[in-house]
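Escalation from tier 1.

The customer reports that the assembly of two entities below gives different structure tokens on two consecutive runs. Tier 1 could not reproduce it. I'm attaching the input and our single run for tier 2 to review.
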Amino acid sequence: MPKNSHKVKLALKYCGSCNPHVDLTRIARHLTKVAEARGDFQLVPLPEDGIDVVVILCGCPRACGNKAEVRARAGQSLLTAGESVNGRHVPEAHLPSTVEQELIKILDS
Amino acid sequence: MSMMTGNEYRESLRRLKPEIYYLGEKIESVADHPAFIPHVNAAALTYEMALAPEFEELLSTTSHLTGERINRYTHIHHSHDDLVKKVKMLRALGQQTGSCFQRCVGHDGLNSVYSVTYEIDQKMGTDYHKRLVNLLKEVQSKDLMISGAMTDVKGDRRLSPSQQKDPDLYVHVVEKKKDGIVVSGAKAHITGAVNSHGHLVMPTAAMKAEDADYAVCFYVPVDAPGVIHIFGRQTNDARKCNCFLDQGNVDYGIVGGEALIVFDKAFVPWEHVFMCGEYEFAYELVERFATAHRQNYGGCKVGLADTLIGASYALAQVQGTDRSSHIRDKLVEMVHLTETLYCCSIACSCQGYALPAGSYMADPLLANVTKLNVTRHIYEIARIAQDIAGGILATAPSEMDWKNPKVGKYVDKYMKGVADIPTETRMRLIRLLEAMTCGTALVESMHGAGSPQAQRIMIERRANLERKKRLAEKLAKIGEQPLFVC
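Tier 1 run:
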């Protein structure tokens, strides 16, 4: 996507972080850096209108943030739940890069 | 109609011809032998209560495969509500039987194998999940009772399966044929084995490449050739044959009825094989089964504890101690311990989650905490029950002496408590408490679903001690001090 065209709006939704098995903020920080580097998407607050992608960040497999009303905020969603991305097991160290890869698939689609 | 009545279940057992030995003799019919009738009765209640309006909400549900109404014991959990209802079902059954009703082991096995076969197929390109689904349809449509057979006899515990001097100390594949596999070995402590329709056999531990022949999961009918059952002794089991009142829990016995299942070159057709050499999935299967089974214990044992509390309270009334403050305090303590266990099982169910196959499992850490608490709290509850009951629990005369024409009048006179309550009431309560707290029944709370150390190992694996350390370091102002530790 050209940098001067409409930027994809990406929002993050945390589960609430009661007792996370993994460090979710590492994923968030990584996505912030990727957004700056790529320039084709921007992080916006979840209540904003016109969100294209929502990344749901859950600290454990219980996935409390994975609610229909959250997914309905955007056309597409990505789910991390403990050591998993979209239901596939991913070691904690690889979570940020895996979320990035999954996000790029969405952006390029 | 896919759900059986209790009597239809008994009739279905009579049609089978399993090879069963008990006290040195071959048993012809478990449904009709006094040593087995209490266990059959307890399992039969899982059928009866599913059809009873009072309990159908817990004990029956809708099949995700066929849309038919089925017994929950043949169901694959697909929601948190399913997980919670399993616990509530177990408590309700425990209250009605005061014993183990056996059917949960196979239920947990089906759920575990359902999810793991899906994941094996995803990675290995096998078709185990389809085979399991076909078996599940049969189990649901015929309302079969399946035992879950996981624990191998293990021999020298220092050695892995393939390192044992005798290769049969863990169940393993001895031959692969065009139409199936041949297996040998034995599974120990298998609850409800003799009065099940078949066995779901699973590996017992994590496996390495050299143990691949031991990474085997399959189903066999209870009366398949080469499958032999040796039924275990229980405390006071002779009373089943020559006593009534002295049994304590006449209808349902004191435990589930466990057997050693021997596989002597038993043949298993491929359609009933769900893992054969995929050793890297053995641990996952063990953990999922252990989680599902440990989730149960704050349900079933809580139901038993409810009856134990009731028996203690009733006996205190019979003995005239029920208004003493220390007795009431002890009863409160029993309730507190009981409901603590229930909290654990409900919590691990509510914190459960979906698996790639779409089925749900309980939270493993909390499920292991549940079971580890059971290994302590049920013993403490039993200790308090014995405290309230008094030494008579161990010294009461037998029902034969109570019925004896010469000394029966003395037993009746001197075993009496409060004047207007019959001696027989006291004797019945004493025997019920004896059955539930003295002997085999308690060991089930210790080692059923795995020994305490097995729970501790799984708790440590999931403890996330490093994060807890970071939380403490932040407060103690050691190293980095972020606003939040995530």
